[in-house]
Protein backbone atom coordinates (compact mmCIF):
# COMPACT_ATOMS: atom_id res chain seq x y z
CA UNK A 1 0.00 0.00 0.00
CA UNK A 2 1.05 3.61 -0.52
CA UNK A 3 3.08 4.93 2.38
CA UNK A 4 3.29 1.57 4.13
CA UNK A 5 6.51 0.78 6.00
CA UNK A 6 8.38 -2.37 5.05
CA UNK A 7 11.78 -3.80 5.91
CA UNK A 8 14.42 -5.66 3.92
CA UNK A 9 15.57 -8.22 6.48
CA UNK A 10 18.78 -9.33 4.77
CA UNK A 11 20.23 -10.66 8.00
CA UNK A 12 17.41 -13.16 8.35
CA UNK A 13 18.04 -14.52 4.87
CA UNK A 14 21.79 -14.92 5.41
CA UNK A 15 21.77 -16.44 8.88
CA UNK A 16 18.37 -18.13 9.02
CA UNK A 17 18.31 -21.66 10.36
CA UNK A 18 17.02 -23.88 7.49
CA UNK A 19 15.14 -26.01 10.03
CA UNK A 20 13.15 -23.13 11.54
CA UNK A 21 9.40 -23.66 11.39
CA UNK A 22 8.21 -20.18 12.38
CA UNK A 23 9.12 -18.31 9.21
CA UNK A 24 6.37 -19.20 6.78
CA UNK A 25 2.61 -18.95 7.14
CA UNK A 26 0.29 -21.68 5.81
CA UNK A 27 -1.62 -20.46 2.79
CA UNK A 28 -5.25 -21.09 2.01
CA UNK A 29 -6.27 -23.82 -0.41
CA UNK A 30 -8.62 -23.53 -3.35
CA UNK A 31 -10.00 -26.99 -2.51
CA UNK A 32 -11.75 -25.67 0.62
CA UNK A 33 -12.38 -22.02 -0.20
CA UNK A 34 -16.08 -22.65 -0.92
CA UNK A 35 -16.88 -24.56 2.27
CA UNK A 36 -18.23 -21.35 3.81
CA UNK A 37 -20.41 -20.76 0.75
CA UNK A 38 -21.75 -24.33 0.83
CA UNK A 39 -22.72 -24.19 4.49
CA UNK A 40 -24.18 -20.69 4.14
CA UNK A 41 -26.41 -21.84 1.28
CA UNK A 42 -27.53 -25.13 2.83
CA UNK A 43 -28.08 -23.68 6.33
CA UNK A 44 -29.40 -20.36 4.97
CA UNK A 45 -26.85 -18.37 6.99
CA UNK A 46 -25.85 -14.81 6.08
CA UNK A 47 -22.21 -14.28 5.08
CA UNK A 48 -19.94 -11.29 5.61
CA UNK A 49 -16.52 -10.32 4.28
CA UNK A 50 -14.01 -8.19 6.13
CA UNK A 51 -10.46 -7.04 5.56
CA UNK A 52 -7.76 -5.52 7.77
CA UNK A 53 -5.80 -2.36 7.02
CA UNK A 54 -2.06 -2.88 7.54
CA UNK A 55 -2.79 -6.36 8.88
CA UNK A 56 0.69 -7.22 10.17
CA UNK A 57 0.77 -4.11 12.36
CA UNK A 58 -1.95 -5.66 14.53
CA UNK A 59 0.25 -8.58 15.63
CA UNK A 60 2.70 -7.86 18.50
CA UNK A 61 6.45 -8.43 18.14
CA UNK A 62 7.65 -11.30 20.34
CA UNK A 63 11.40 -10.61 20.39
CA UNK A 64 13.74 -7.64 20.77
CA UNK A 65 14.29 -6.33 17.26
CA UNK A 66 15.63 -3.04 15.91
CA UNK A 67 15.46 -1.55 12.41
CA UNK A 68 17.00 1.44 10.66
CA UNK A 69 14.38 4.17 10.07
CA UNK A 70 13.61 5.24 6.49
CA UNK A 71 15.90 7.91 5.06
CA UNK A 72 12.96 10.28 4.59
CA UNK A 73 12.07 10.02 8.28
CA UNK A 74 15.70 10.63 9.27
CA UNK A 75 15.86 13.74 7.08
CA UNK A 76 12.71 15.12 8.66
CA UNK A 77 13.92 14.31 12.17
CA UNK A 78 17.31 15.90 11.50
CA UNK A 79 15.60 19.15 10.58
CA UNK A 80 13.69 19.07 13.86
CA UNK A 81 16.36 17.86 16.32
CA UNK A 82 19.65 18.05 14.41
CA UNK A 83 20.34 14.32 14.98
CA UNK A 84 20.31 11.33 12.62
CA UNK A 85 21.50 8.56 14.95
CA UNK A 86 18.10 6.96 15.47
CA UNK A 87 17.02 3.32 15.69
CA UNK A 88 13.50 1.95 15.88
CA UNK A 89 12.52 -0.87 18.19
CA UNK A 90 9.67 -2.94 16.82
CA UNK A 91 6.57 -3.45 18.96
CA UNK A 92 4.48 -4.86 16.08
CA UNK A 93 5.20 -7.23 13.21
CA UNK A 94 6.70 -5.35 10.26
CA UNK A 95 6.16 -6.07 6.58
CA UNK A 96 9.22 -7.67 5.03
CA UNK A 97 10.12 -9.89 7.99
CA UNK A 98 9.85 -13.55 7.09
CA UNK A 99 8.06 -14.51 10.27
CA UNK A 100 5.48 -11.69 10.13
CA UNK A 101 2.76 -13.62 8.19
CA UNK A 102 2.85 -16.58 10.57
CA UNK A 103 2.68 -14.39 13.67
CA UNK A 104 -0.21 -12.45 12.19
CA UNK A 105 -2.07 -15.73 11.57
CA UNK A 106 -1.46 -16.75 15.16
CA UNK A 107 -2.72 -13.40 16.42
CA UNK A 108 -5.83 -13.44 14.19
CA UNK A 109 -6.65 -17.02 15.20
CA UNK A 110 -6.47 -15.96 18.85
CA UNK A 111 -8.90 -13.11 18.18
CA UNK A 112 -11.38 -15.47 16.54
CA UNK A 113 -11.05 -17.97 19.37
CA UNK A 114 -12.03 -15.13 21.68
CA UNK A 115 -15.36 -15.01 19.83
CA UNK A 116 -15.95 -18.71 20.54
CA UNK A 117 -14.42 -20.11 17.37
CA UNK A 118 -12.54 -23.39 17.12
CA UNK A 119 -9.56 -23.96 14.83
CA UNK A 120 -9.55 -26.89 12.43
CA UNK A 121 -6.49 -29.01 13.30
CA UNK A 122 -6.04 -30.13 9.69
CA UNK A 123 -6.57 -26.90 7.73
CA UNK A 124 -4.66 -24.47 9.92
CA UNK A 125 -5.58 -21.16 8.24
CA UNK A 126 -9.30 -21.70 8.97
CA UNK A 127 -11.15 -21.05 12.21
CA UNK A 128 -14.73 -22.24 12.33
CA UNK A 129 -17.27 -21.64 15.06
CA UNK A 130 -18.98 -24.91 15.89
CA UNK A 131 -20.59 -24.26 19.27
CA UNK A 132 -23.95 -23.30 17.77
CA UNK A 133 -25.57 -22.88 14.38
CA UNK A 134 -25.62 -19.07 14.55
CA UNK A 135 -21.86 -18.54 14.65
CA UNK A 136 -19.74 -19.53 11.67
CA UNK A 137 -16.49 -17.74 11.01
CA UNK A 138 -13.85 -18.28 8.39
CA UNK A 139 -10.38 -16.82 8.36
CA UNK A 140 -7.75 -17.44 5.74
CA UNK A 141 -4.68 -15.61 4.59
CA UNK A 142 -3.55 -14.13 1.26
CA UNK A 143 -5.34 -15.91 -1.58
CA UNK A 144 -8.52 -16.68 0.35
CA UNK A 145 -8.89 -13.08 1.49
CA UNK A 146 -8.67 -12.00 -2.15
CA UNK A 147 -11.07 -14.74 -3.27
CA UNK A 148 -13.57 -13.75 -0.59
CA UNK A 149 -13.88 -10.37 -2.30
CA UNK A 150 -15.17 -11.98 -5.49
CA UNK A 151 -18.82 -11.63 -6.47
CA UNK A 152 -21.29 -13.56 -4.34
CA UNK A 153 -24.93 -13.00 -5.30
CA UNK A 154 -27.56 -14.50 -2.99
CA UNK A 155 -31.09 -15.24 -4.17
CA UNK A 156 -33.95 -17.31 -2.78
CA UNK A 157 -32.84 -20.18 -5.03
CA UNK A 158 -29.16 -20.17 -4.06
CA UNK A 159 -25.84 -18.38 -4.54
CA UNK A 160 -24.00 -17.33 -7.70
CA UNK A 161 -20.19 -17.30 -7.47
CA UNK A 162 -18.22 -15.60 -10.22
CA UNK A 163 -14.71 -14.34 -10.79
CA UNK A 164 -13.84 -10.68 -10.89
CA UNK A 165 -14.57 -9.52 -14.43
CA UNK A 166 -12.04 -6.68 -14.14
CA UNK A 167 -9.35 -9.26 -14.99
CA UNK A 168 -11.09 -10.01 -18.29
CA UNK A 169 -11.36 -6.29 -19.04
CA UNK A 170 -7.65 -5.93 -18.31
CA UNK A 171 -6.74 -8.79 -20.65
CA UNK A 172 -8.88 -7.34 -23.44
CA UNK A 173 -7.09 -4.00 -23.15
CA UNK A 174 -3.61 -5.55 -22.94
CA UNK A 175 -4.17 -7.56 -26.13
CA UNK A 176 -6.08 -4.77 -27.90
CA UNK A 177 -9.22 -6.89 -28.36
CA UNK A 178 -11.83 -4.32 -27.34
CA UNK A 179 -14.07 -4.86 -30.38
CA UNK A 180 -13.05 -8.44 -31.04
CA UNK A 181 -15.25 -11.23 -32.34
CA UNK A 182 -16.02 -13.65 -29.52
CA UNK A 183 -15.15 -17.35 -29.77
CA UNK A 184 -17.56 -20.16 -28.81
CA UNK A 185 -14.81 -22.39 -27.39
CA UNK A 186 -11.86 -21.60 -25.11
CA UNK A 187 -9.18 -23.31 -27.21
CA UNK A 188 -8.39 -25.09 -30.45
CA UNK A 189 -5.75 -27.78 -29.95
CA UNK A 190 -2.81 -27.54 -32.35
CA UNK A 191 0.85 -28.51 -32.51
CA UNK A 192 3.84 -26.41 -31.39
CA UNK A 193 4.86 -23.19 -33.16
CA UNK A 194 7.77 -20.80 -33.72
CA UNK A 195 9.19 -19.09 -30.64
CA UNK A 196 8.20 -15.46 -30.17
CA UNK A 197 10.87 -12.83 -30.72
CA UNK A 198 9.45 -9.86 -28.80
CA UNK A 199 6.16 -9.85 -26.80
CA UNK A 200 7.10 -12.55 -24.25
CA UNK A 201 6.70 -10.08 -21.36
CA UNK A 202 3.12 -9.34 -22.41
CA UNK A 203 2.44 -13.07 -22.75
CA UNK A 204 3.67 -13.81 -19.24
CA UNK A 205 1.67 -10.94 -17.80
CA UNK A 206 -1.55 -12.13 -19.42
CA UNK A 207 -1.03 -15.75 -18.39
CA UNK A 208 -0.31 -14.60 -14.83
CA UNK A 209 -3.70 -12.87 -14.75
CA UNK A 210 -5.36 -15.98 -16.15
CA UNK A 211 -3.74 -18.20 -13.51
CA UNK A 212 -5.54 -16.18 -10.84
CA UNK A 213 -8.83 -15.81 -12.72
CA UNK A 214 -9.14 -19.49 -13.67
CA UNK A 215 -9.63 -20.51 -10.03
CA UNK A 216 -13.30 -19.64 -10.49
CA UNK A 217 -13.64 -20.72 -14.12
CA UNK A 218 -13.39 -24.46 -14.53
CA UNK A 219 -14.11 -24.20 -18.26
CA UNK A 220 -10.76 -22.51 -18.97
CA UNK A 221 -8.46 -24.35 -16.54
CA UNK A 222 -7.10 -26.79 -19.12
CA UNK A 223 -6.40 -23.94 -21.55
CA UNK A 224 -4.61 -21.89 -18.90
CA UNK A 225 -2.54 -24.92 -17.92
CA UNK A 226 -1.49 -25.35 -21.54
CA UNK A 227 -0.61 -21.65 -21.89
CA UNK A 228 1.41 -21.65 -18.67
CA UNK A 229 3.70 -24.37 -20.06
CA UNK A 230 4.96 -21.86 -22.66
CA UNK A 231 5.79 -19.04 -20.25
CA UNK A 232 9.56 -19.62 -20.38
CA UNK A 233 9.65 -19.53 -24.19
CA UNK A 234 6.31 -18.40 -25.68
CA UNK A 235 5.62 -19.29 -29.30
CA UNK A 236 3.55 -17.57 -31.96
CA UNK A 237 0.99 -20.35 -31.70
CA UNK A 238 0.84 -19.98 -27.90
CA UNK A 239 0.18 -16.26 -28.33
CA UNK A 240 -2.57 -17.06 -30.84
CA UNK A 241 -4.11 -19.48 -28.32
CA UNK A 242 -3.94 -16.76 -25.68
CA UNK A 243 -5.88 -14.36 -27.89
CA UNK A 244 -8.37 -17.11 -28.73
CA UNK A 245 -9.01 -17.69 -25.01
CA UNK A 246 -9.44 -13.97 -24.29
CA UNK A 247 -11.95 -13.74 -27.14
CA UNK A 248 -13.85 -16.60 -25.53
CA UNK A 249 -13.77 -14.84 -22.15
CA UNK A 250 -14.99 -11.65 -23.78
CA UNK A 251 -18.27 -13.39 -24.57
CA UNK A 252 -18.49 -15.42 -21.35
CA UNK A 253 -17.18 -13.04 -18.69
CA UNK A 254 -20.39 -13.33 -16.65
CA UNK A 255 -20.33 -17.13 -16.30
CA UNK A 256 -20.85 -18.19 -12.68
CA UNK A 257 -21.00 -21.22 -10.43
CA UNK A 258 -24.42 -21.79 -8.87
CA UNK A 259 -24.98 -23.27 -5.41
CA UNK A 260 -28.67 -24.30 -5.22
CA UNK A 261 -30.48 -24.25 -1.90
CA UNK A 262 -32.79 -27.17 -2.57
CA UNK A 263 -30.29 -29.74 -3.88
CA UNK A 264 -29.77 -32.53 -1.36
CA UNK A 265 -26.21 -33.28 -0.24
CA UNK A 266 -25.86 -37.02 0.37
CA UNK A 267 -22.23 -37.56 -0.61
CA UNK A 268 -19.09 -35.94 -1.99
CA UNK A 269 -19.10 -36.60 -5.73
CA UNK A 270 -15.47 -36.66 -6.95
CA UNK A 271 -15.01 -37.03 -10.71
CA UNK A 272 -11.74 -37.67 -12.54
CA UNK A 273 -10.70 -37.63 -16.17
CA UNK A 274 -7.27 -37.53 -17.82
CA UNK A 275 -5.76 -36.56 -21.14
CA UNK A 276 -3.26 -39.36 -21.71
CA UNK A 277 0.09 -38.14 -23.10
CA UNK A 278 -1.56 -34.89 -24.12
CA UNK A 279 1.64 -32.83 -23.98
CA UNK A 280 3.44 -33.19 -27.30
CA UNK A 281 6.79 -32.21 -25.75
CA UNK A 282 6.96 -34.13 -22.47
CA UNK A 283 4.25 -36.76 -23.23
CA UNK A 284 2.91 -36.23 -19.73
CA UNK A 285 -0.79 -36.68 -19.05
CA UNK A 286 -3.14 -34.13 -17.51
CA UNK A 287 -5.48 -34.83 -14.60
CA UNK A 288 -8.79 -32.99 -14.47
CA UNK A 289 -10.89 -33.29 -11.35
CA UNK A 290 -14.14 -31.95 -9.96
CA UNK A 291 -15.47 -32.26 -6.40
CA UNK A 292 -19.18 -31.60 -5.92
CA UNK A 293 -21.58 -31.69 -2.98
CA UNK A 294 -25.28 -31.49 -3.72
CA UNK A 295 -24.82 -29.97 -7.21
CA UNK A 296 -22.39 -27.41 -5.74
CA UNK A 297 -18.90 -27.40 -7.26
CA UNK A 298 -16.58 -27.08 -4.27
CA UNK A 299 -13.37 -27.51 -6.23
CA UNK A 300 -12.21 -28.24 -9.75
CA UNK A 301 -8.67 -28.36 -11.04
CA UNK A 302 -6.46 -29.27 -13.95
CA UNK A 303 -2.82 -30.23 -13.42
CA UNK A 304 -0.09 -32.11 -15.25
CA UNK A 305 0.91 -35.50 -13.86
CA UNK A 306 4.40 -35.72 -12.39
CA UNK A 307 5.42 -38.87 -14.26
CA UNK A 308 4.93 -40.21 -17.78
CA UNK A 309 2.14 -42.80 -17.91
CA UNK A 310 2.78 -45.74 -20.22
CA UNK A 311 -0.90 -46.44 -20.91
CA UNK A 312 -4.26 -44.70 -20.72
CA UNK A 313 -5.27 -46.98 -17.84
CA UNK A 314 -2.18 -45.95 -15.91
CA UNK A 315 -2.84 -42.24 -16.46
CA UNK A 316 -6.50 -42.66 -15.44
CA UNK A 317 -5.38 -44.51 -12.31
CA UNK A 318 -2.96 -41.73 -11.34
CA UNK A 319 -5.68 -39.16 -11.98
CA UNK A 320 -8.20 -41.05 -9.87
CA UNK A 321 -5.78 -41.28 -6.95
CA UNK A 322 -5.08 -37.54 -7.16
CA UNK A 323 -8.77 -36.64 -7.15
CA UNK A 324 -9.49 -39.12 -4.35
CA UNK A 325 -6.83 -37.53 -2.13
CA UNK A 326 -8.38 -34.09 -2.69
CA UNK A 327 -11.84 -35.48 -1.90
CA UNK A 328 -10.62 -37.05 1.35
CA UNK A 329 -9.17 -33.72 2.44
CA UNK A 330 -12.42 -31.92 1.62
CA UNK A 331 -14.33 -34.60 3.55
CA UNK A 332 -12.31 -33.94 6.72
CA UNK A 333 -12.83 -30.18 6.49
CA UNK A 334 -16.56 -30.61 5.86
CA UNK A 335 -16.78 -32.95 8.84
CA UNK A 336 -15.24 -30.28 11.04
CA UNK A 337 -17.80 -27.79 9.66
CA UNK A 338 -20.62 -30.09 10.73
CA UNK A 339 -21.33 -31.65 7.31
CA UNK A 340 -20.89 -35.43 7.48
CA UNK A 341 -20.73 -37.03 4.03
CA UNK A 342 -19.22 -40.07 2.34
CA UNK A 343 -17.02 -40.00 -0.76
CA UNK A 344 -17.80 -41.36 -4.23
CA UNK A 345 -15.16 -41.46 -6.97
CA UNK A 346 -16.21 -41.62 -10.63
CA UNK A 347 -13.92 -42.54 -13.56
CA UNK A 348 -14.74 -43.28 -17.19
CA UNK A 349 -11.97 -45.88 -17.54
CA UNK A 350 -12.98 -49.46 -16.77
CA UNK A 351 -9.32 -50.51 -16.62
CA UNK A 352 -8.51 -47.84 -14.02
CA UNK A 353 -11.60 -48.82 -12.00
CA UNK A 354 -10.42 -52.43 -12.03
CA UNK A 355 -6.97 -51.41 -10.76
CA UNK A 356 -8.50 -49.30 -7.99
CA UNK A 357 -10.85 -52.06 -6.84
CA UNK A 358 -7.89 -54.45 -6.56
CA UNK A 359 -5.77 -51.96 -4.60
Topology:
Blueprint: H1 10-15, H2 35-43, E1 66-67, H3 71-81, E2 88-89, H4 100-114, E3 118-119, E4 127-128, H5 143-148, E5 151-154, E6 158-162, H6 166-174, H7 200-213, H8 221-228, H9 236-252, E7 257-260, E8 267-275, E9 286-293, E10 296-304, H10 312-336, E11 342-347, H11 350-358
Parallel strand pairs: 8-11
Antiparallel strand pairs: 1-2, 3-4, 5-6, 6-7, 8-9, 9-10
Helix pairs in contact: 6-7, 6-9, 7-8, 10-11
Structural features, described:
- Helix content is 36%, strand content 15%.
- The protein has eleven helices and eleven strands.
- A hairpin with a 7-residue loop joins β3 (118-119) and β4 (127-128).
- The longest helix has 25 residues, at 312-336.
- It has helices at residues 10-15, 35-43, 71-81, 100-114, 143-148, 166-174, 200-213, 221-228, 236-252, 312-336, 350-358; strands at 66-67, 88-89, 118-119, 127-128, 151-154, 158-162, 257-260, 267-275, 286-293, 296-304, 342-347.
- The chain folds into three domains: 10-162, no CATH class; 166-252, no CATH class; 263-358, Nucleotidyltransferase, domain 5.
- Strands 10-9-8-11 form a four-stranded mixed sheet. A three-stranded antiparallel sheet has the order 5-6-7, with helices on one face.
- α6 (166-174) runs antiparallel to α7 (200-213), α6 packs across α9 and α10 crosses α11 (350-358).
- With 359 residues, the protein is an alpha+beta fold.
- Mean pLDDT is 84; it is low at 130-148.
